[in-house]
Write the structure tokens for this entry.
Amino acid sequence: MDLIWLIPVLPGVGAALNGILGVRYFSKTVAAGIACATMGGSLLLSVFAFVQLLGAEHREHVVSLGDWIPPIPLQTVNGLGAFEVPWAFRLDPLSGMMILIVTGIGFLIHLYSSAYMSHEPRGGYVRFFCYLNLFCFFMLTLVLGSTFLVMFVGWEGVGLCSYLLIGFWYHKKSAADAGKKAFVVNRVGDFGFVLGVFLIFFTFGTLDFREVAEAAAQLPVETATFGVLSTICLLLFIGAVGKSAQIPLYVWLPDAMEGPTPVSALIHAATMVTAGVYMVGRNAVLFSQAPMIMTTVATVGVVTALLAATIGLVQTDIKKVLAYSTVSQLGYMFLATGVGAFAAAAFHLMTHAFFKALLFLGSGSVIHAMNDEQDMQKMGGMKLYMPVTFVTMFVGSVAIAGVPPFSGFFSKDEILYRTFLDNKLLWGLAVLTAGMTAFYMFRLIFMTFFGEYRGPSWGSQNGDDHAADDGGHHDDGHAHAWHGPHESPSLMTGPLMVLAVGACVAGFVGIPAALGGDNAIEHFLEPAFVAESAAHSEEGAHEVAHLSHAAEIGLMAFSVLIAAFGIALAYHLYVRRPERSKELATNWAGAHRVLTNKYYVDEAYNATLVKGTMGGARGLWTVDRKVVDGAVNGTGWFTRASAWVSHVLDKYVVDGLVNLVGWVCAEGSYIFRRGQTGLIQNYAVAALFGVFTFVTVYLVARFVGL
Amino acid sequence: MMEITTVHYTVLSAALFSIGVIGVLVRRNIIIIFMAIELMLNAVNINLVAHAHRLENLVGEVFVVFVIAVAAAEAAVGLGIILAFFRNKETVNIDEMNVMRW
């Protein structure tokens, strides 16, 4: 267990290798090999660590690699505290489960991507694996981090990788825009998260999860007041809402489908988007002390689940359906955390990771087979062409729809059951959502795999045994000429099959007591959600109210019935009588249009926030141009004007005086200048006249008698 | 036969001096000007001799001897300058003698 720090570091090394050397030197095979090998290594380490954790008496292990931030004196509410952050990783049941999910599904998706991305040019291919590894590095840092700040490093890192991977095909404007949108929307949430972290340090003087939980457990539960714990939880929840795509920040996730499908599967279905749920679960003690925020979480969760499910009903893009389904399932998880069923949320997180990754990868397989066609209206009858994909996706759909004994049934019913105990209204909405989930998932299955083939025709209709040679060498022809839908190569179907098995059996770790199980996962995870002191002292306090087993089974039967109804309706509308669905769409044109346009939320955001921001920016720009530039230009103008004035003064007054002196001299000397002929004889004349004058004066004076 | 008195000498001297002055002032030929200067010197000499005779004082006549000596020296130096100038500029017109003018 002391080597858990290697789990995130291995993919990090892979990313560094591929990023620094690979983009220039590695071949596709080497790059994919490095990426898969590092992920495989951290998967192995995770499994070992997990097995050791199961065997350990005290199921919590912290590995500190040394100081990141040495103690800095910083003001807290209790005077001066030491702000100290070690590079510490914490392995406990919750993070143990998360690393298994991240490395396990991450590894499968790496394998899958090596085939799925094979048409990319070499540079893009290596870049893709660099990003993918980097994502795993950050995601594992996020879940293993022992303090809020280490978690925040991973939190921001996965956001960055999400941005990079959504915009992977950056030459496509829509993809680049979607990446930006995801990044900007996530910033809103991160803002809340980081404020929450500040407040946590200010309140508790530490950022270690366990210490914070212990300290928070000592504070009184804020039932009626909105105190500091509520504020912290609200801020953290804002972060979770951004990362996990809940109302009102869910808009980025559907757009994120612009990224390559394995990215959607790994980041936007199985791991990153669940980081919010994980974070709320990690701070279960804090949230339990703030009931008001818990209610908010549950409400936001269920409303998101319902809203996203309704949008999912009418989408025709296969990935968009899955995206809204993801938003909806995340809503379920928040509903579970909101009613205090943190273990159920984590359980659903796990099963969802299996079947949603499976569904995304399956849809990727279909898209791959259809030559990058994503519109379900142009598919149909695909089960003939790609049986493996069909069967595995069918399993995934059954699992998400909540049909027993597939995994989704157990986790979803645990959530529904706990919600029923807490709040009947929320339960009603959640059950309604469950029915819709079954409907839209089977709508997807039926539109894609059943009925007539509606896609474009291809050159030679005898795409006979193309499915057979699924090895590497069909790549070369594929990019140029499309030979019709075909089964994907075994590197893609392999992960599908593994995930399908997972989607079948993952639920068995959480069989509720009512069905004869012992809900193992709940007991396993429980220590992570309570403060240590509380766990020992007041054992009974966490016992929730129970229904009788019969009533619980009744609830299950009801939700299964709802799911079955959804499936039957989908079958009726899309297989038996496809024309009925079109009739419905025309009969309910208004509702259909609203749903197709996703309640115009994007438009509303555009009209208000985006326009507002742009307007504000434009306003500021105008201020900048008119006032700031005006001041600068005014100064310039004033300088020029005063310079002109002093120029005039200089020219006419100062120069005038100087010139006047010169002019007076010049004019005054004119008369004298005339005398200076330079001719000696003229001077002689003057001298002669001088002599005459003196002689005359002398004679006159003498004779007149002066 | 009219006796020649001091007045006559003085008038002669004045006439010669005036001729000399006018010659210096109006002529352009440096040789002529030079000769006019000699004329003025000699007018002064006549005046000095006449008054020395009238006053029966030999100082005037001695002075005349000095004047003649100085005039001879002056004539030698002046003619030397004129000759040197002529060799350079081939002219004796004082209007063209302006090399020293600023």
